[in-house]
Design goal:
Layout lengths: L9 E3 L6 E3 L4 E2 L5 E2 L41 E5 L3 E3 L10 E2 L7 E5 L3 E6 L7 E6 L5 E6 L7 E6 L3 E13 L2 E8 L2 E2 L3 E2 L5 E5 L10 E4 L11 E2 L3 E4 L8 E5 L7 E5 L7 E4 L2
Parallel strand pairs: 5-8, 6-9, 7-9, 8-10, 9-11, 10-12, 13-17, 16-23
Antiparallel strand pairs: 1-2, 3-4, 13-14, 14-15, 17-21, 18-19, 18-22, 20-21, 22-23
């Protein structure tokens, strides 16, 4: 069948609906036949360039052992110092062993106070060995162990001499009344060696209201003296758990006297030969 051609052939614009000569209409990229005023080329963003595929990932990759909670087997880790918490890094201060996904080998920690914690171990925890002069506490905690927990060894060679302090009625050189009892003896004369540490444990409830301190004057502040503080540390409230007064005797320390800061005549003499 023949088609109309020539100047008498007309068409309708698919956009504006106006009649135009057929040879004036143009076919757009979307298939529409439109007049010159409505014609628009295809926008480039309607046909983005093809993107190449991402590079192939590494086969059988290995994590960087220096970051995060990666599992690693590092054999022996030694940490020397004070106030260390072993809770999961490589060698350093502090270090930790947290979230390990393989054997932890041997951990050796020296000094005090000490806390060694191994968490979320999914393989053997190896050996934990702690040694030294332990004056405070040692805490070993293993959480979520999914396999063998090796050997845990704690060796203490404490150089701290402890006296258990109680308060009761008694008689000493100052007279009768409430007195300090050291290991059951009323206000005894004790000998303290230079360089050694002595702890006077006041956890017993009878110590409530009777803080023990040191002075270079007999009967301390009640005898006109002042408190001696060289090498002395205290902890807690007398009469409560964990309360103590501790002294590390300095070189050349004078003869000392232990006394109660609140009440006269309760203490005795601490020689420092």
């Amino acid at each position: 069948m023949p088609f109309a051609v020539g100047k008498k052939a007309y068409g309708i614009c698919d956009i504006c609906g106006q009649r135009y000569r057929l040879n004036q209409l143009r076919k757009q990229w979307d298939g529409l036949k439109v007049c010159p005023q409505d014609y628009s080329p295809k926008h480039p963003q309607l046909q983005p360039r093809p993107q190449p595929a991402d590079p192939e990932a590494l086969r059988d990759p290995r994590p960087d052992p220096r970051t995060g909670d990666q599992g690693f087997d590092k054999g022996i880790v030694r940490v020397l110092g004070t106030d260390l918490t072993a809770t999961n890094d490589l060698i350093g201060r502090p270090f930790s062993l947290d979230g390990a996904t393989t054997a932890l080998g041997t951990v050796t920690i020296t000094d005090n106070p000490l806390t060694a914690t191994g968490q979320s171990a999914t393989a053997s925890l190896g050996t934990v060995s702690i040694s030294g002069e332990i004056t405070d506490s040692v805490t070993l905690t293993t959480q979520v162990g999914l396999s063998a927990l090796g050997t845990v060894t704690v060796s203490t060679t404490s150089s701290v001499t402890s006296y258990t302090v109680t308060v009761a009625y008694g008689t000493n050189s100052y007279g009768s009344g409430n007195k300090y009892y050291l290991d059951g003896s009323v206000s005894p004369t004790i000998n303290l060696s230079e360089g050694s540490t002595y702890r006077f444990d006041q956890s017993d409830s009878s110590n409530s209201g009777h803080p023990l301190r040191f002075s270079t004057t007999a009967n301390g502040t009640h005898g006109g003296g002042s408190e001696y503080t060289t090498g002395v540390t205290t902890n807690g409230t007398p009469g409560s758990s964990g309360a103590y007064t501790q002294i590390t005797v300095a070189s050349g320390a004078p003869t000392l006297y232990y006394y109660c800061t609140n009440h006269s005549g309760m203490g005795g003499t601490a020689n420092t030969p």
